[in-house]
Amino acid sequence: MMIANPALQTPPRRRGLMLILSSPSGAGKTTLTRLLLQNRDVDLTLSVSVTTRARRSSEADGIHYHFISRDRFETMRDRGELLEHAEVHGNYYGTPRGPVDEVLSNGRDVLFDIDYQGTQQVRAKAPEDVVTIFILPPSIHELRSRLERRAEDAPETIAARLRASRNEITRWTTYDYVLVNDDLQRTFRDVLAILTAERLRRVRQEAATAAFVSQLLSER
Ligand SMILES: Nc1ncnc2c1ncn2[C@@H]1O[C@H](COP(=O)(O)OP(=O)(O)OP(=O)(O)O)[C@@H](O)[C@H]1O
Ligand SMILES: Nc1nc2c(ncn2[C@@H]2O[C@H](COP(=O)(O)O)[C@@H](O)[C@H]2O)c(=O)[nH]1
Known about the structure:
binds adenosine-5'-triphosphate, Rossmann fold, binds the ligand Nc1nc2c(ncn2[C@@H]2O[C@H](COP(=O)(O)O)[C@@H](O)[C@H]2O)c(=O)[nH]1, nucleotide-binding, alpha/beta, four-stranded mixed sheet
């Protein structure tokens, strides 16, 4: 007769991971993020950054970003409330530490849309728990078209972001995965495949698998 071990009835959850998407402006991070969050099976929590940049007409405070002043940003940074922070395209951006810690400590995964500077900082703090994906545009011509079609930024902002894209693109070698976002649905499927495989890595399943194996070996 098998005697149920109550400890095995609620197997430990695996470690939460941090999935980071980076790209030059306009390559498609926000669009991919939206697809990931809309999919109920994906179970990711978005890290909502703080930024000093002006809100776009399509954005809502607290959903896409927390829009804050430079003074408030500097206070958060100086108090150590940011997991990472960087100046990007002339504005400050940062990841509030508290919400990320809370999600991870519940064994759930966090999605980040941050630049290469922030990615380096997060990786240095938790190398085992970070999965990084760099999204490339199919061409610079298409990148320009996407920024223009999005029509959310002034022409001089688009021009500055395109200039910055050349430096950003050279960072691709520091990422775990690199995807060319030509066909959106295919890129989305590739991101899902990466997430699924990374969730299944032994190091992330160690506690649950150890409990399962001990149950297996206790069978007669
Ligand atoms: N594969 C794709 N094919 C065609 N258009 C796309 C594709 N992916 C995204 N887009 C479009 O390109 C524009 C820019 O995409 P998005 O806003 O997601 O870029 P982003 O990388 O988040 O940019 P930013 O860093 O400036 O926020 C949007 O209008 C989006 O609809
Ligand atoms: N290091 C960080 N980079 C961030 C963060 N939030 C966003 N970003 C990056 O900034 C640029 C511009 O974003 P946009 O919304 O103004 O177009 C883009 O590369 C984002 O990935 C953050 O918290 N930290």
